[in-house]
Amino acid sequence: MTPKKNRIFISYRRDDSLDQAQRIRAMLVHRFGDDRVFLDLDTPWRW
User: Fold this and answer.
1) Which CB contacts under 8 angstroms, 24+ apart, belong to 3-8?
2) What is the spatial distance between Cα 20 and Cα 26, in angstroms, rounded to a whole number?
3) Does 2 or 4 have the greater pLDDT score?
4) What is the pLDDT of residue 47?
5) Average pLDDT over residues 6-12
6) Residues 8, 28: contact at Cβ < 8 Å?
7) How many CA atoms lie within 13 A of 31 on its CB side?
């Protein structure tokens, strides 16, 4: 049985930090792989 890989979820405030979140994602993808890093771009958060 193959061990389950942990995943990384990036949460951010859309109005002022998308650029930084995308840079952080790129660094994490380079280190851990694209299949383990998730940056939610489609969920319309309303607080």
Assistant:
1) 5/35, 5/36, 6/36, 7/36, 7/37, 7/38, 8/32, 8/36, 8/37, 8/38
2) 10
3) 4
4) 44
5) 88
6) yes
7) 9
The residue extents of the domains of the chain are 8-39
Average pLDDT over residues 26-34: 95
Residue 6 contacts residue 36 (beta carbons within 8 Å): yes
| Predicted local distance difference test score (pLDDT) of residue 14 | 73
Burial 19-40 (b: 16+ CB within 10 A, else e): eebeebbeebeeeeeeeebebe
Residue 14 CA to residue 32 CA, distance in Å, equals 24
Going through the chain in order, the beta strands assigned E by DSSP cover: 8-10, 37-39
